[in-house]
Amino acid sequence: MAPTRILRVDFLDIKDEDIREAADSIRAGGLVIIPTETVYGVAVNMLNQKAVERLYAIKQRPKDKPFSIAIDKKERVEEFARDIPIAAYKLISKFWPGPLTLVFKGIEQPSVGLRIPDDEIALRIIEQTEAPILLPSANLLGKPAPANFEAAIQDLDGRVDLAIDAGPVKLGIESSIVDVRVEPLQITRVGAISREDILKAAQKKSILFICTGNSCRSVIAEALLKNMLLEQKRDDVEVASAGVMILSGIGASQGARIVLSRQGLDVSGHVAQEVTREMIRRSDLILVMERVHEEAILKIVPEAKNRVFLLREFAKIEDNNLDIVDPIGKPLDFYGQTFIHIKEALERVIKLI
User: Fold this and answer.
1) Which residues are CB-neighbours of 98 under 8 A, at least 6 positions away?
2) Could you say which architecture CATH assigns to the domain 5-200?
3) For position 186, what pLDDT does the model report?
4) CA–CA dist 18, 20 (Å, integer)
5) DSSP of 210-265, one letter per residue?
6) CATH number, domain 205-352
7) Fewer Cβ atoms within 10 Å of its own Cβ: the N or the C terminal residue of the chain?
8) Where are the CATH 3.40.50.2300 domain residues in the chain?
9) CA 3, 4, 8 angle in degrees (round to 5)?
10) pLDDT tens for residues 197-243?
11) DSSP state of 10
């Protein structure tokens, strides 16, 4: 049995050729030891059946117990998983990249485990391999997961084709595992992330305000609701805002800053952001200012229909006009009226959340 080829990689000076060699080997069906922030793992091209069979043999793992898949971008979750619950998107937003493996309903199988490692070497290899990668820990059955290269290569020298020696890993403990196929979710392994932190992130309510440019109405709503929650000493709700059409990097409008400053609220540090699929998917309640915003949200994520409402639906109004009109370019008095409309609605919203 020939010894495994070893590449020594310095985290402070990662060479493209080393990443490329590892990725090429995995793509071609090789077994490659690579570091992650948790422990060292064995990376294998999931699409290469012979390589997968070698991995099962080395790990002495039953064929009906699948390995988790390492991915490099959050957006790739939907390539492998279906029926993803809101709680899963909250955990993804909070902990990925990081030491959390999530078990989903698979598109082609009953379950699939996914993780994004928080390690530059691992991420670059995954990206350059351009194939789904299985990445179990680099240890034999009954042995502890290796926190350094010496432990990883000890029993696998000659059994794998290539190994990257990057010294000790950052954490030295395996990822936590959460099964999000069931409600409530089940924590099947407590690793680098505590049970308390997982549950807190999954159970935290998420409110998203939407307007056009994320410089006026949604900014006012976000600042007001955050202040209301602070006054009630609540930390169980996450509040954010975004726009459906923005000029990247703009701040809060002068009118919004003035009406909020009168309440002692400072939004001078606000930077507008465009709404994303991820924001929508992790939000329990999406409050929009006009019908056109609701339509824009549902074009991005149609299944969010039951979570999108006009903010003014929650206010006591005497007419049928539920839109909160954009105050941009209008006098300061108009901003003041906009502020009142938003505040009236939020006084009811906070009672419901």
Assistant:
1) 37, 116, 118, 192, 193
2) Alpha-Beta Complex (3.90)
3) 98
4) 5
5) EESSSSSHHHHHHHHHHHHHHHTT--SEEEEEEESS--TT----HHHHHHHHTTT-
6) 3.40.50.2300
7) N
8) 205-352
9) 125
10) 999 999 999 999 999 999 999 999 999 999 999 999 999 999 999 99
11) B
Which tokens go with 13? 């000076």
Q: What is the DSSP letter of 191?
A: -
Q: With contact defined as beta carbons under 8 Å apart, do 335 and 259 qualify? A: yes
End-to-end Cα spacing for the chain = 63
User: pLDDT tens digits for 236-251?
Assistant: 999 999 999 977 779 9
The residues pairing with 44 across neighbouring beta strands, listed in sequence order, are: 134
Taking residues 126-146, what's their average pLDDT? Answer: 96
CA-nearest of 91, 92, 81, 100 to 36 is 100
Q: Give the Cα separation of 122 and 37 in Å (integer).
A: 9
SS3 label, residue 183? coil
d(CA 129, CA 288): 41
Q: ∠ CA 12-13-19 to the nearest 5 degrees?
A: 120
What is the pTM assigned to this prediction? 0.92
**Interval 299-325: pLDDT, tens:** 999 999 999 999 999 987 666 789 999
Output the pLDDT for position 319. Answer: 63
Among 131, 290, 291, smallest CA distance to 221 is for: 290
Say how far apart CA 145 and CA 327 lie, in whole Å.
58
* Residue range(s) occupied by CATH 3.90.870.10 in the chain: 5-200
Is cis: bond before 184, omega within 30 of 0? yes
Q: How far is CA 349 from its chain centroid?
A: 26
In sign, the C-alpha dihedral spanning 97, 98, 101, 102 is negative
CB 227 within 8 A of CB 268: no
Whole-angstrom Cα distance, residue 250 to residue 312?
26
